[in-house]
Design a protein that fits this description.
Layout: E1 3-5, E2 12-14, H1 17-41, H2 47-72, E3 89-92, E4 99-104, E5 107-113, E6 125-132, E7 135-140
Parallel strand pairs: 5-7
Antiparallel strand pairs: 1-2, 3-4, 3-6, 4-5, 6-7
Helix pairs in contact: 1-2
Length: 150
């Protein structure tokens, strides 16, 4: 990541998203310009056609920015992988007594119910409160039917 000094504060802050995007597009633009220049030198394209194609290339990059800016912006999350699921709700895919599989955020995860003696039935709602390795530690979630063991 490219960094710049904030005036007077002595701390680092990220370069603006548009500048990061533009810097990432420069190698492709330079390559396209070189190929088009060679094509015009060797007589495969007129200079006007080469400039028009280079303009189309730059316009493509400009048109893609609104679609891609979220990929270049923001600080990386502190929580990666399964840790990002802490605090979310999911649905049991099989009986959790105490282990089984749950679906959280559209993904299937191994889970363990941390309440002793509690049995969570399939389709029962669960709440992710921690992660141990690749196993989600869950408790029965809100609105779990009484038949779910809570």
């Amino acid at each position: 990541m490219v960094w710049a000094r904030r005036q007077g504060a002595g701390t680092l802050r990220a370069v603006p998203v548009l500048l990061k995007y533009a810097l990432m597009q420069l190698p492709g633009l330079a390559l396209a310009a070189g190929v088009l220049w060679l094509a015009s030198e060797w007589g495969w394209l007129s200079r006007g056609a080469a400039l028009a194609l280079l303009g189309v290339w730059a316009a493509k990059d400009a048109a893609m920015y609104p679609l891609l800016r979220h990929a270049y912006g923001g600080a990386p999350s502190r929580h990666l992988g399964s840790e990002r699921l802490v605090g979310q709700f999911g649905v049991a895919q099989e009986v959790l007594a105490p282990t089984g599989y749950v679906r959280v955020a559209g993904e299937l995860w191994r889970a363990e119910c941390t309440r002793p003696g509690v049995r969570i039935e399939p389709q029962g709602r669960v709440h992710v409160h921690a992660v141990r390795g690749l196993t989600l530690l869950v408790t029965p979630g809100e609105q779990t039917p009484p038949a779910g063991g809570c």
